């Protein structure tokens, strides 16, 4: 994990500015429940900042201290408050200390089974989980690793505690992707 974390630190340090917001997040933004929000694997924080600017009370979690530092600097510049959590998401249980959340988002990251199982328990009733990432078509056509790719409809019925509101397979300027919106029952 330390090797991967350092790799992400180097990637975040090498980038300038923030990417534009994820297209699936923008398309379905209105489905999010205003209130407490968690950005899982927030990176340099483009989504966390967007949510904070729209009035959400945002927590953002990642294991890259470099990404979190860039996010902290941006939050200060934009004069929004974001609660930063430095955590290895392979051991996600400490997230329970910060719940319940009204909305959880996860962009360009595939949570492990333990975190996926935990997410419904982090949400308030009717809370929303919005998730968008690259799929196996992207892995087939680019160096994106297959083990990190979402496969078609793989998570549509992933939890008895969640109702699936939306599943979409689509392509945007970043590549071939799957997106989900779930509601906590
Ligand atoms: C592709 S980036 C996505 C960043 C952000 N969600 C976005 O869309 O801009 C993936 C992020 O996952 C983080 N990450 C990867 N494995 C992790 C782990 N085990 N625990 C915490 N963060 C992790 C990396 O540090 C990186 O910031």
Task: Explain this structure.
There is one protein chain. By secondary structure, the protein is an alpha/beta fold. The chain has a single domain (32-184), classed as 3-Layer(aba) Sandwich (Rossmann fold). The protein has six helices and seven strands. It has helices spanning 2-14, 23-27, 46-53, 65-78, 113-122, 136-141; strands at 36-40, 57-62, 82-86, 101-107, 123-134, 162-172, 175-184. The chain has a seven-stranded mixed sheet. Strand 2 (57-62), helix 4 (65-78) and strand 3 (82-86) form a beta-alpha-beta unit. Helix 1 runs parallel beside helix 4 (65-78) and helix 3 packs parallel to helix 4. The mean pLDDT is 97. Bound molecules: S-adenosylmethionine. Residues 8, 41-43, 46, 62-64, 67, 88-90, 107-109 line the site of S-adenosylmethionine. S-adenosylmethionine binds at residues 8, 41-43, 46, 62-64, 67, 88-90, 107-109.
Question: Which percent bin holds the helix content?
Answer: 25-40%
Q: How would a textbook summarize the main sheet?
A: 7 strands, mixed
- Terminal-residue CA separation: 34 Å
Query: What gyration radius follows from the Cα positions, in whole Å?
Result: 15 Å
- What is the spatial order of strands in the main beta sheet? 3-2-1-4-5-7-6
Could you say how many structural domains there are in total? 1
